[in-house]
Specification:
By secondary structure, the chain is an alpha/beta fold. It has helices at residues 2-12, 49-54, 65-71, 102-113, and strands spanning 17-20, 43-44, 75-76, 87-90, 93-96.
Length: 114
């Protein structure tokens, strides 16, 4: 899709892409130019299985964000406790774990765009 291509191009051109909560789910099907998953070997975060379970969201989701990123080779980094802010940057890919991460992620993005 056009959205996947745009994300791939931005990240590979080292232009910041910021995603929070479940937004990184779009990366499940995003590939790098060599055909590998775009997240392979990258550090990232997003809504965790534990946070999904706490809100009983799993029954509404098509797949686990955490598990799909790990299956695609990402190093999925979680906060020390559910709902704590957690921002992870790996090159141009900037991710926030949960709603508490939105403001710190936005601040980091603003600094990078500065």
């Amino acid at each position: 899709s056009l959205a996947l291509k745009m994300i791939q191009d931005l990240i590979e051109e080292e232009k910041p892409v910021a995603m929070v909560c479940h937004a990184p789910a779009i990366l499940r099907d995003c590939k790098s130019k060599n055909g590998d998953p775009l997240v392979k070997g990258r550090k990232m975060t997003g809504f965790t299985d534990a946070e999904d379970a706490e809100l009983d969201l799993g029954r509404h989701l098509l797949f686990s964000l955490e598990q799909s990123m790990k299956q695609n080779g990402a190093e999925f980094i979680t906060a020390d406790a559910n709902w704590n802010a957690n921002v992870v940057e790996d090159g141009a890919l900037m991710t926030g774990q949960n709603p508490a991460s939105a403001a710190p992620l936005a601040e980091r993005l603003a600094e990078r765009l500065g």
